[in-house]
Amino acid sequence: MTIVKDIETRGTHHCETTALGVLLRHEGLDLTEPMLFGLGSGLSFVYWDSKGMAVPFLGGRVRPFDLTRNLTSRLGLTLTAKETTSPRRAWENVATPIDAGRPVGLQLDCYHLDYFRSKVHFGGHVVAMYGYDEHDAYLVDTEQQGGAVRTSRVGLARARAERGPMTARNRSFTITLPARPFSWQDQIIPAIKDCADAFLAAPIANLGHRGIEKAGEQVPGWLLRADEPRQDLPQTALLMERGGTGGALFRALYRDFLGECTLLIDDGDLRTGHRLYAEAAVLWTDVSTLIAKAGESGDTDHLKQAGLVLHDLSRIEKDAMQVLRRL
User: Fold this and answer.
1) Rounded mean pLDDT of 99-126?
2) Residue 327: which of 258, 279, 281 has the closest Cα?
3) Which domain of life is it from (predicted)?
């Protein structure tokens, strides 16, 4: 058995920030999950629909691994990411740093992980790996998945090699802090402004605040759109609240990030942005509740109400980002 020493196997809400927390704490940088999410400019929105989907997807964050790229670039950290189509090389890419005493981040499809009780394909899942033996790999996943967990090496290989939406080719990565001292606090405002700029200037209508507006137009028709409304709509609501989002489709994480920032930076616009995202987080939970009720009852009125709340959310988040962009 090979185990990296002094690993704090703390599972948090979201998979990518959980893995980042493990890797960065081992390097000596301990930041809260909301701070990791915010410094990585992680908040976004996408309304994604295609013919093969049982129900449209509401996404609340940037694409998988973009958060990691954003965070490491902004803080001046060295991100070493590797991809390969070779199973042998893929294993070497994780075993070598672990043998040297360093944890490794992995992007994979959670469907093949032994400890996942809900078997759905999601190729953008991220875990930290800190050890292995002849049969199993030792991982840190989110709190809801068990924190410190293990899965078979055979299943892990399948998860890493899976192809499909949001997958990567056996992606693994390590992070190294710079030798010189640095101040992550200096990057708070640039991270907030970059996130606001991207949200407000989204290039297509199903992204950013315009995407939320589109969702408000489309959600009222979901009872007819869904293949099996009684199953599909409550599942969508569950993913919005408990599918690694930290609640309220990542808005609770961003609210808490902004709240931490107000303790470090005295700025009226920052406090206003925090207040607006606190309001938005409550409303996103209301939306998920209404979507679930619609699926359970078959009552379209719940989806009509959800559509109205989404229109309000589009305005609230646009206002919040416009204020935060002025920082």
Assistant:
1) 95
2) 258
3) Bacteria
Q: Is residue 115 part of a domain?
A: yes
Shared-domain flag, residues 317 and 284: yes
Tell me the two tokens of residue 113.
């992980």
In this predicted structure, what is the pLDDT of residue 1? 94
Asked, for residue 294, whether it belongs to a domain, the answer is: yes
Pairing of strands 125-132, 148-152: unpaired
Residues 14 and 162 in one domain: yes
- DSSP track, 153-209: HHHHHHHHH--STT--SS-EEEEE--SS---GGGGHHHHHHHHHHHHHT-SSTTBHH
Q: How far apart are CA 86 and CA 67, in angstroms?
A: 26
Q: Which domain holds residue 192?
A: 184-324
- Considering the entire predicted model, what is its pTM? 0.96
pLDDT at residue 117 in the model: 85
Average pLDDT value over all residues in the chain: 96
Is the pLDDT at 11 greater than 90? The verdict is: no
Choose the final residue of a domain: 124, 146, 176.
176
CA–CA separation, 313 and 276 (whole Å) = 10
Q: What is the pLDDT of residue 102?
A: 98
What is the CATH classification number for the domain harbouring 9?
3.90.70
